[in-house]
UniProtKB/TrEMBL annotation:
Belongs to the glutamine synthetase family. It holds the Pfam family Gln-synt_C-ter. Residues 184-619 form the GS catalytic domain. GO terms for molecular function: glutamine synthetase activity. InterPro entries: Gln-synt_C, Gln_synt_N, Gln_synth/guanido_kin_cat_dom, Gln_synth_cat_dom, Gln_synth_gly_rich_site, GS_Type-3, GSIII_N. Transmembrane segments: none annotated. Residues 85-179 form the GS beta-grasp domain. GO terms for biological process: glutamine biosynthetic process. It comes from Spirosoma linguale (strain ATCC 33905 / DSM 74 / LMG 10896 / Claus 1). The lineage of its organism: Bacteria, Pseudomonadati, Bacteroidota, Cytophagia, Cytophagales. This is Glutamine synthetase catalytic region.
Length: 729
């Protein structure tokens, strides 16, 4: 009997929901109370300083150092009044996690006295040791200097340390000593700036009052929740983030009863607690619900400016971990922590808004607005079509490789769903030069139940199998992995759309220079763009085998391997696009390619090592001990003259022996393939070997181990089982 497993189960089953009290009765009373937001700045800064800071944020301008001194003083006063003792530049290095180095709000004088201190120089810039952060060959390990710089467009916030103190967190960029970006935020900010300029220039053809375009994002975060004791009883979850073994329970998600079901009390208490803390930090989380798989849930926010939304999502994941610990729960962000049930994604809902309050992806029936909508819609479709492989590269990871193409996630084939009505509109545009967007009359369902109010039907249905789907007034990129930093995908998406809009402006200006009428020229260009990119549109079931065949016949890529997908980053056309838009230079792109490959290799390597350790030191040893018990039983039966009764037991003994032999040989072969891969110096080739030769052993070893789980006595099995992980809450 595995004492550790059953002790963990005993602990998990004895726990109850922890009561959570709201800070106040009204959300408005505490929303954003832990953020240095506009309201706080207006109250604490001089009118001149407040104006300069807000202008710098809206125009991407610089803030003078003298203004920074005043802001720093106001920040310190505000933060210390709420219990803060330290400050940090909070940044997002290419590890995939957030990073912070805390400094105290005081200094020591020559007389040995502590003096409160926080100047503008400390607000604007810090120097964390950068030697151990991923850099992809941009610098030598012994060169430690790197800089973080304040991003004023993302409000500073207070993080409760959980031990009586708070830290002022200042969202920041992170660059090397030679100026290259070492983080997710810096290229994202450049991509957003590129899209703002390109989209504003196109908007000027329709409305001169539009002087700024802001991309928006609402990332829906999926995740699993397990009891903390059960989590620590599974070494693979602790070390690799996913279960490398585990036989499917008799009941999984086949009844579809978990989806939108009643939230378990302990999980609900965690959600409520987490939401209250999120509201204090100005994160507008609005939706919570059970997802399809047992133990799986989702949280979704209101739309925000992309940079802020990305910061909030990174903060949200960190906060969820901390709050879950208070409730003796563990949040799992891995894309596929459990085989046989749905994995988790981070659906990125993206759109563009103007300073005049217009959503550029919202359909309209007015002719001029209709043409503007179609202009942006078609350019987005063409951008995705022309750069589908680059978008695919932006979501490539070891975790997402387990999920993409499975029954709950979009396939690795990038396609676009627009719905029947919009597709017909674009077909009419191509064939008849008609520019009419039919938003549709309000259609109501007639239920024949007088007590039920009339229900209105949307103009188009949703397609949850599409990786890039139009959902009414935005696009939903569903293929992003749940553990990913959305900045990577958003950098690519905003960069490719900016590049495409620049091309559109170039094509239109050339026609206008020839004296063509603006509206007719726009229509002709859109017709050409649509004709050249419509093969990427797909309305059907993206999970079907038929779509894989049809996509191949259309010439669409189906890049299944992460190393192969990541290689798109360093293709000449990708390097040229990033440089053309000013998002990243060649060295920065190539370094990210190297970093992502190394990350992939290390993740698969960890999974392989965990698998070998569990297989040999936990499963095989347990199976052999159980085999000895059975052998003793069989011998006793034979000695008692019951040889025929001993035969079924002998069959089990043979099965255990056969499976143990296969597992042992599989683990040995996996180790040899790992050694072979590790001897390859080229990172790309080494990653490909890990993706094929090392990972090729995973399914074989897992199959035999999971079969042994069905044979070995439940009392002896060492690993917490799926039925316990997924259903004990």
């Amino acid at each position: 009997m595995s004492n550790f497993r059953f002790k963990a189960l005993e602990v998990a089953q004895s726990r109850h929901a922890v009561p959570v009290a709201a800070p106040t009765e009204r959300v408005g009373d505490f929303f954003g109370s832990y953020t240095f937001n506009n309201e706080v700045m207006r109250a604490l800064l001089s009118p001149e300083a407040y104006l300069k800071v807000t202008e710098a944020i809206s125009t991407n301008g610089q803030i003078d150092r003298n203004i920074a001194d005043e802001v720093a003083g106001a920040m310190k006063s505000w933060a210390t009044s709420k219990g803060a003792t330290h400050y940090t530049h909070w940044f997002q290095p290419l590890t995939g996690e957030t990073a912070e180095k805390h400094d105290a709000f005081f200094d020591i004088t020559m007389e040995g006295k502590a003096v409160e201190k926080f100047k503008g120089s400390a607000l604007v810039q810090q120097e964390p040791d950068a030697s151990s952060f991923p850099n992809g060959g941009l610098r030598n390990t012994f060169e430690a200097r790197g800089y973080t710089g304040w991003d004023p467009s993302s409000p500073a916030f207070l993080m409760d340390n959980g031990a009586g103190g708070k830290t002022l967190c200042i969202p920041s960029v992170f660059i090397s000593y030679t100026g290259e970006a070492l983080d997710y935020k810096t290229p994202l900010l450049k991509a957003l700036n590129a899209l703002d300029k390109a989209a504003t220039a196109v908007c000027q053809y329709f409305d001169r009052n539009i002087t700024k375009v802001t991309p928006t994002l609402g990332p829906e975060q999926e995740y699993f929740v397990v009891d903390r004791a059960l989590f620590y009883a599974r070494p693979d979850l602790v070390l690799a983030g996913r279960t490398v073994f585990g036989h499917a329970p008799a009941r999984g998600q086949q009844l579809e009863d978990h989806y939108f079901g009643s939230i378990p009390p302990r999980v609900n208490a965690f959600m409520v607690d987490f939401e209250f803390e999120s509201m204090k930090l100005g994160m507008p989380v609005r939706t919570r619900h059970n997802e399809v798989a047992p133990g799986q849930f989702e949280v979704a926010p209101t739309f925000e400016e992309v940079n802020l939304a990305v910061d909030h999502n990174a903060l949200l994941m960190d906060l969820m971990e901390k709050i879950a610990a208070k409730h003796n729960l563990k949040v799992l962000f891995h894309e596929k922590p459990f085989a046989g049930v749905n994995g988790s994604g981070k659906h990125n809902n993206w759109s563009m808004g103007t300073n005049t309050g217009v959503n550029l992806l919202a359909p309209s029936t007015r002719p001029k607005e209709s043409l503007r909508f179609l202009t942006f819609l078609v350019n987005v479709v063409k951008a995705v079509h022309d750069n589908a492989d680059l978008l695919r590269a932006s979501i490539a990871s070891a975790g997402n490789e387990h999920r993409l193409g499975a029954n709950e996630a979009p396939p690795a084939i990038v396609s676009v769903f627009l719905g029947e009505a919009l597709t017909q509109t674009l077909n009419d545009l191509e064939t008849k030069s008609e520019v009419t967007v039919n938003k549709g009359d309000n259609v109501y369902y007639k239920l024949g139940l007088n007590r039920i109010p009339s229900l209105m039907r949307d103009n188009t249905d949703r397609n949850r199998t599409s990786p890039f789907a139009f959902t009414g007034n935005k696009f939903e990129f569903r293929a992003v992995g749940s553990s990913a930093n959305s900045a990577s995908t958003m950098t690519v998406l905003n960069a490719i759309v900016a590049d495409q809009l620049n091309k559109f402006k170039f094509d239109l200006d050339a026609r206008l220079a020839r004296g063509e009428k603006k509206e007719l020229a726009i229509v002709d260009i859109l017709k050409e763009y649509y004709a050249n990119s419509k093969r990427i549109l797909f309305e059907g079931n993206g999970y079907s085998d038929e779509w894989v065949e049809e996509a191949a016949s259309r010439g669409l890529s189906n890049i299944k391997s992460s190393p192969e997908a990541l290689g798109v980053f360093v293709q000449p056309e990708s390097l040229a696009l990033f440089e053309r838009t000013g998002v990243m230079n060649h060295a920065e792109v190539e370094s990210r390619y190297e970093i992502e490959l190394e990350k992939y290799i290390k993740n698969v390597q960890i999974e392989s090592r965990v698998m070998g350790d569990l297989a040999m030191n936990h499963v095989v040893s347990t199976a052999l001990k159980y085999q000895n018990k059975l052998a003793e039983t069989a011998r006793n039966l034979v000695e008692l003259g019951m040889a025929s009764e001993a035969e079924p037991i002998k069959d089990i003994l043979r099965e255990i022996s056969t499976r143990v032999i296969v597992i042992k040989k599989g683990v040995e072969a996996m180790i040899e393939s790992r050694k072979k891969a590790n001897n390859v110096t080229d990172t790309g080739e080494r990653a490909k070997l890990y993706a094929t030769e090392v990972k090729d052993h995973f399914d074989l070893i897992r199959y035999e181990v999971d079969k042994l789980e069905e044979v070995v006595d439940d009392e002896d099995w060492p690993l917490v089982k799926y039925r316990e992980l997924l259903f004990v809450k």
